Amino acid sequence: MRFNDGFWLLKGGVKPAFGLQVVQATPDNDGYNLHVSTKPIRHRGDTLAGPVLSIRVHSPTEGVIGVKINHFKHSDPTPNIALFPDDPPVPSVSLSKGEKEWSVTTGQLTAQITENPYTISFKSPTRTLTSAGYKHQAIYDVPYKWTLRSASNNSCLMTDFSSNPTPGTPPEFVRYVHSELNLSPGELIYGLGEQFGAFVKNGQSVSVWNQDGGTSSEQAYKCVPFYITNRNYGVFINHPGEVEVEVGSEKVSRVGVSVAGESLEYFIIYGEKPLDILERYTRITGRPALLPTWTFGLWLSTSFLTSYDEKTVSGFLQGMQDRNCPVRVFHLDCFWMKQYEWCSFTFDPDHFPDPKAYLAEIKRKYGVKICVWINPYVSQLSPIFQEAVEGGYLIKRKDGSPWQWDLWQPGLGVVDITNPKAKKWYADKLDALVDLGVDTFKTDFGERIPHANVVFHDGSDPIRMHNTYSVLYNELVFELLERRLGKGEAVVFARSATAGGQRFPVHWGGDCESTFEAMAETLRGGLSLTLSGFAFTSHDIGGFEGHPPPQIYHRWVAYGLFSSHSRLHGSMSYRVPWQYGEEAAEYMARFLNAKHRLMPYLYQLALQGNAVGHPMQRAMFLEFPEDRTTHYLDRQYMLGHSLLVAPVFVPSDEESEYYIPAGRWTSFFHPERTIVGPQWVKEIVPLDEIPVWVRPGTVLCLGPEGIGRPDYNFAENLEVYVFELSEGQVVNAEVPTGTDKDIAGIVTAECKRGEVIVKVTGDLNLTSVKLALGGRVHDGIKEGKEV
Q1: Distance CA 33, CA 23 (A)
Q2: Which family does it belong to (predicted)?
Q3: Which listed residue (246, 439, 447, 540) is catalytic?
């Protein structure tokens, strides 16, 4: 929210009350409770009238300091973001008091508070990270007309009156709590969820408010009130409703954060390295779940508006098998149910007269898992709609009638996820599908949740529920699958999320066009998401809308198979490779085989994501924070610590460009080729290639050639490659079993006096160990012997 007219003046009618002076500071176990006046206090008379802000500065866990600003204090509204749902906090705090200042220290982070003027500076051992300076914290009363730019108020003004009764008289003013933090020269901001615009958020106004707007606008499906900087800290705004963030936009050297209401809380999260920040953030909001190995294989969809008949499906699965592109998950999109009836949770009998037998047959014949499309909406033409109305399972208007509209499905209602009986009713429908042989669900939608003139069963504030709904919806489905299939076997394919949603993966990027531009949008969105606490990300290979030209399809397949999760899906056209030329299947087979072989490495990354919140696909600056060039890169990424992936966004006759950081890097597909960075690379990349470079000092364990699936025993038949070790360097590669969190063994490589010694501990079966050095590959070594 923007309150100013330029830097000096306020917009007409805006009434501020700035926090100016600490008039009382009371310590407790983990911080200080401050009373901050909004006018200068010179004598007792100045204490009469006017707001006093109650501000709490405290540390909930090591390396994190929270600031909570309250105006009118009353019982906290619901829902709230769940804090520390998986790992407990790590208390570590010390307090100190000076003559006119107070300090809160936790680990290497200190908040220094001054009395008059009231300020807070956040410091590491070496510098001031950021600060809330004079007049940086305030409450504002804003004329209602100025608030209409906010996403939540704009969507109250929908012209489709079937969706909402005409709103009552709007208030004259809306109150906001606002806080600003300084932006230092050269400081960059990233994250805020899956944002498809510019990767670096400086200069942007971002509304943390989920909307169904595709990948080509400022709207986003997965808005997260967390941003990370290139200055050793991140900021988590602990608010589940709309959060408006001005990133150097209203005031070019500050980040302003505003929420409507009476309270705002944020946490400064310190990290010596960017990954440390994500580790602490996911401790607060939750770790990504560990996914089964089969989810990392190829997902194939029927597409959306296409034919799902048995002959077509069997032909696709057989064709993929015949072309060495084995499908691991087969997805049936919306029309597995009858048109106009979404959701009925019933297979269309005209196309699937015996769904249980049909699913069992394709699972047996093609070795696939089955995914079906669902959403949390119920059409009034669905045979279960009246059941939902009579049970009180839908979100209601204030007059007690179900909230309905005609967008997407006729007269649809939305399941009230806060009603325990509605949750059980919905879960029972999914239970029946699992009985038929369904293994996972594509949990689509969940963004267009009504918030004006509605009531929830548990009394939740509809504004706060709008984003939160996505987490509760996916949690319900994920936990149903855990209960039915076992812990470690659950996965959803979700579109909507917010803070905490990373606990219920996987999430894909939504509806993109079939263009190079949309492919780049998808990558920017995915990198922003993985900078917001999410370990996994996916997208519709080839794009969703339109029919991709073959060259775009080829490039997107390569990028998709070097993503954490890989799905072929479109809208009105299929994405099986032979639709784009038989050579497309050859290219896909090569990249899919590479992904299968990389599973010992990839699954270890998934274990790290579950343990400490590190993402699989990483923006370059996460791994190379000291290399300033990497801070702006958004068309390439690190797949874990060791692999640099540079998708190609141009046709085969144009040059692609990417950046190689310092050191001698080795081509994954052509180990005889090396590049010494730092340098920019310009090259024409053939359609059957994607630049993938192995970081120097890597031990990479590969599964057997042609294994044909992602779920196998990772400890058997391993090929070990050691890349460019420097003198004295010792590198370990842990090899997971692939069936749980256990490690089957460790491969250790050490360069000592010009020799490389490789040792193996644990129960590993190696077929070969090879040393890639200076563009040559040496092989034939044995455990404990020199290369």
Answers
A1: 11
A2: Belongs to the glycosyl hydrolase 31 family.
A3: 447
